Amino acid sequence: MGGRNVNDLAKSALLGDPLLVRQFLGAITPLVCAVCRGVMGRQHPDLEDAIQDCLVDVVRALPQFRFESDARHYVTKIALRRAISARQRARAHSTRLATMDVHDLSFVTIDDETEARADLVRNLLDDLNKEQANVLRLRLMLGHSIEEIAGITGVSQNTVKTRLRLGKIQLRRWLERRGEGPRARR
């Protein structure tokens, strides 16, 4: 970023100069990519489109940002919503495709066990309470602290902790039922 932080770049981008907007986008693109990959998975066919849509949404929403918190939190919130929406649309589309003849569809096999487990967790998060799923994505997939999640989601740290705890309990139950949890492996 060359010494300028994201907040300064965001304020500069508000001036409307294409070069300043491009600098701001260059600074936030790695964050947006990380959020989208965490929510959608690296192999998701709509990943690149979702990243571009997120960047457009951030630029459009920037005039409403009041700079009361870190601009990175604002960007994360926008990217998280857009990525979840893109994943849900793709899931609905695949459900419609499921009525087609299975032999007409080509399948991609993923050898990487880590990516397969991440996909399992993503699918489970899709079925979890929205608030719990969002804090789990921010914490587990994107590595945000409790304090950062509270800032991004606009709730207290205690609320974040509660949502994390309840979400983890539900995920653990689902994983154990599927034979994936630690108790199921004994």
Question: Layout of helices and strands, plus pairs?
Answer:
Layout lengths: L5 H8 L4 H23 L6 H15 L9 H27 L15 H14 L3 H12 L4 H8 L3 H21 L9
Brief overview:
By secondary structure, the chain is an all-alpha fold. The chain has helices at residues 6-13, 18-40, 47-61, 71-97, 113-126, 130-141, 146-153, 157-177.
Describe the structure in your own words.
69% of the residues lie in helices and 0% in strands. The chain has helices at residues 6-13, 18-40, 47-61, 71-97, 113-126, 130-141, 146-153, 157-177. Helix 3 packs across helix 4 (71-97), helix 6 (130-141) crosses helix 8 and helix 7 (146-153) crosses helix 8 (157-177). Residues 102-110 have low confidence and may be disordered. The chain is globular, with a radius of gyration of 18 Å. The chain is mainly α and 186 residues long.
List keywords for this structure.
single chain, 186 residues, mainly alpha
